[in-house]
Structures are given as C-alpha cells and as structure tokens.
Amino acid sequence: xxxxxxxxxxxxxxxxxxxxxxxxxxxxxxxxxxxxxxxxxxxxxxxxxxxxxxxxxxxxxxxxxxxxxxxxxxxxxxxxxxxxxxxxxxxxxxxxxxxxxxxxxxxxxxxxxxxxxxxxxxxxxxxxxxxxxxxxxxxxxxxxxxxxxxxxxxxxxxxxxxxxxxxxxxxxxxxxxxxxxxxxxxxxxxxxxxxxxxxxxxxxxxxxxxx
Length: 211
What we know:
This protein is an alpha/beta fold. The protein is 51% helix and 10% strand.
C-alpha cells in the first residue's frame, strides 16, 4: 500500500467519521490525464471544432472516468454514509478543478498563503478552513454527533433500564438538535469568513482555480 503524503496523513489522523481519505497519488494518473483532456476539450470548444453537445458529452464521460478511479481507490466506497475525499498536496490546483467538475470531494492546501485548506464537496462551492479536520468534515458531509439536552451521555448503542440515557420530549429534542446543528454550521462559517475577510484577494484567487 502506498504511503500517505504529509497532508493526506494529517487528514487521515483527523479521523473524521464518514470520510475515506484517498491520497491524490493513488488516482493521480487518471486525474491528471483528465485535467489535460479537459484543457484540450475547452480549447476545441472555443475554436468551434466541436459542438456544444459533443463537448458536454465529453465532459460527462471525463467526470465518470474520474469517479470510477476514485471509487476503485476507496476501500469503503460501499459503506453507507462514507464519502471518498481526495487529499492533494500543494501545487495541484488544476487537478482540484477537475475533481470539482467531476463532482468529487477533495481537500487541498491553500496555495497563496501559509496555512489553511480549501475543501470541495461533490461540486458544491469550495470553502477555506483553518483546520484540516474541518476541511475534511465539509468535504465528506460529516456531521458531529450531537448530544441532546437531557442526555447524560451520548449513547453508542441501544441501552435499557438504568443504563438508558435520559431524553427530553421528542419535540424539544428535535428543536434543540436543529438549533445546535445550525450553531455548529454558523460557527464554522464565521471562522472561515473571518479568515477570508482578512485575506480576501488571496483566497478569492485561490478558489477561482478550482472552477
């Protein structure tokens, strides 16, 4: 098995539930080939040597090849709720754009400043994060386990009798859980926004590479 690269090792060490870390090296041959292919395809489309419909079909076929390669590299692709997250090293912004266009999840270092990560999830907008664990969580769509108000501890399995967690009413629990999830999302967004606000020009240029 290939050794993990530094950034992939950090992503793997974060142990984010729902994320299967795939080092870019494992799929580099296919992704880089498709990156070059997409560049040539765009050039042909601009020159008018290929129809819009044919270009769209070719892009779809290219994206499918990327997804197949990532599925083959992921050893948990069959598992419910697990998403493969390709982790790139610095210098792979063009390949991140190919992953994004293929609706694949990825994490890569921010190129223009020291520290920070850019994460994309299945073609959704790319977002910058301070911590790699947060970037991987966004890329995988993972949600932290919420401890409902009234629980003595988050139960890891069904329990009975004296071992059962003490739960509030269903309506109260649902409202509290929804509010807590919203607060988590707002905190993550605020953290990313604060960092981006201080270095807007650099981050905007960075994110623009992924499209």
